[in-house]
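Cross-check.
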Amino acid sequence: MAKTTGRALDLRINLADSAIAAAAKNGQIPSELVRMNFCGPKVAHDGFKPMIRQGAFDAGELAIVTFMQAKCYGKPLTLLPATMVGRFQHHTIAYNATKGVLKPKDLEGKRVAVRAYSQTTGVWVRGFLQHQYGVDLDKVIWSAHDDPHVAEAADPPTIERFSLGGKNLGELLAEGQFSAAILGNVLPNDSRVKPLIENSEEAALAWWRETGALPINHMFVMNSEICRTRPDVVREMYRILVESKKAAGKPKSDLDFLPFGFDKVRRPLEIAIQYAYEQKLIPRKLAVEELFDETTRALSEDQ
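Predicted model, tokenized:
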């Protein structure tokens, strides 16, 4: 738990190096209420499991599907409407082209790999496959090598397990162990690996126009006890994040992939909840409001 010194609070924070976090992490934004100890691992993802299972951090970024699972299983974390990572996702799935061209619908009956079935990128991509391309997800043989960060959140029993065997997932895909794989932001530079979704940016824009949402990966969370006892610290931490985002400057795109404020994150969270529930990753369909508390629901980017 964070230590109180007078009115100021020391927070152990897991936050990746990024443009949006730079001003907060380099001490550019002073605060009389919060002293930030950025003690997380270099790769923020590596801190998710310790945060959930050991309470290793008081605050920090967390994958949104991991957070939803944590909420369903009573973990003491509360969401702030502050997006740390967001992007289009259609380009992150690729296929092995050695046996010919694959289209999304062709995945039915084939083995498709992902780092973890509960990985947020995977949830978004499977949602696109189902809702935009008519893929029956139950007819795809899904394979994963990592367990969920939340110990109580077991994968559906149909999910296969595989070992990397010292290789990365892109290499296994190129070698033909899987027909396709959800790989992440950068696909391997290998002629055997091709993007599954043609014109992925146009497809992503079409999804955005249809849904009114941009996919969110990581948001900022805080320990629920701090949120309950020190709402002033919560509001101050949010202010710091808002100022840090402003310091990063306007994005190159007209689209804001890092929305702040409850009203702006509601729609992408509604869809993420729907996809996670349909994919049997959460036991019930959460309401967006219950991801927050009274203090964090009231936060907007204009504050």
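The radius of gyration is 20 Å. Residues 41 and 47 are 6 Å apart (CA to CA). Passed to J.P. for a second look.
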